[in-house]
Amino acid sequence: MLRDTTKLLGIKDPNITILLVLKHQSHIEIRAKLDYQPPLCPHCHGKMIKYDFQKTSTIPILDVQGMPTLLKLKKRRFQCKDCHKVSVARTSLVKKNCQISEPVLKKITQAHTQKLTNSDIANQLHISVSTVQRKLTQFTFKERYHHLPQVLSWDEFARNKGKLAFIAQDYNTKKIVTILENNRKITIKNYFYKYPRKVREFVKVVTVDMSGSYIPLIKQLFPKAKIVLDRFHIIQHLNRAMMSTRIAIMKRYDKKSLPYRAMKNHWRILHKDSRKLSLKLFYSRTFRQTLTPKEIVHKTLQFSDELRYYYNLYQLLLFHFQQKNTHQFMALIEDNYHLVNHAFKTIFRTFKKYKEYIANALEFPYSNAKLEATNKLIKDIKRQAFGFRNFNNFKTKILIALNIKRERIKLILSRT
Ligand SMILES: [Zn+2]
């Protein structure tokens, strides 16, 4: 009967015998002893005899009946008849010099692969946050340099104090290839040069954001890769130019005036792809009228010829972009280059400069959208507040959250 009890508690060691179970208000206390026939002396292989019991140690184990449970374990001590050294009985339940039971450690490991904060895990398992954290540092990921994905996505994300970290991901599997502490060219270069040229030549496409700063580096590292500017970022750039233009025009009006309020309150409608505007009527408090979004656009553009010009330009660019008319898209930029304001001129200059890669973006189905989802997850992990002053812990947590479920085998859980 007691044997079954120990099994239920996740205690597989048959040398542990439960002596007493005490149910306290806040927790369950299990008193047990660890005892077995004396083995040979670990020091001299001499014969040992049973000595006394070591001072009771308190070990958190998995909850019993939903209650935090503590195992108060007395461990047998043995003494060698030859060298007189004393040794303590060993158990598979807790590793040497460890205060946490193996089932709990397994639970921590498992919890790390779920989207739980370190403090959530600590609360769930009634252990200290530092224990959870220590476990995190024991995850190590083996870096191997004999394979790179065919389609690679590059991006960066903000880590603490506005520093940017670099992330590369397999476009198809979403698996993270690497996370680097900063996005400096030398850091990225040093990392990818660990791969032999043959492996790097396997990369056929690299998707990257609009900044363009990585382009020379990509050409150098991946001689056979096509560079694809990310569609999401191209549209985002257009959007931002339209946003600052609309705001600049709007600010020329009095804040209480109808043009100002229309441009301000209905900005979403003005930025939306005009082909996707809904036909539903709704009450606009700005116009004090029931209108469709299309009518709102029409009415607002009547206030300013300038706004109308940018609106039409923006909508046309969106249209050609989505229709994958690279030629028309670029022609529109050429034609309007000398007519537009600073915001548009800046993005047009970039578009012209990276024309080839924009064309690739229209031609190939790849976008960094998948990486954006990863970045969201990274943000969630960052929001888990603490502990990530250490970049390695942060990186580990991200890798656990994103890679482990996909590739458990590659994970090596080392013990320190
Ligand atoms: Zn001995």
UniProtKB/TrEMBL annotation:
Q: Which InterPro entries match?
A: Transpos_ISL3, Transposase_DDE, Transposase_Znf
Question: Its domain of life?
Answer: Bacteria
Q: Which residues form the Transposase IS204/IS1001/IS1096/IS1165 DDE domain?
A: 153-398
Q: Which residues form the Transposase IS204/IS1001/IS1096/IS1165 zinc-finger domain?
A: 37-83
NCBIfam families documented for this protein: transpos_ISL3
Name of the molecule in the record: ISL3 family transposase
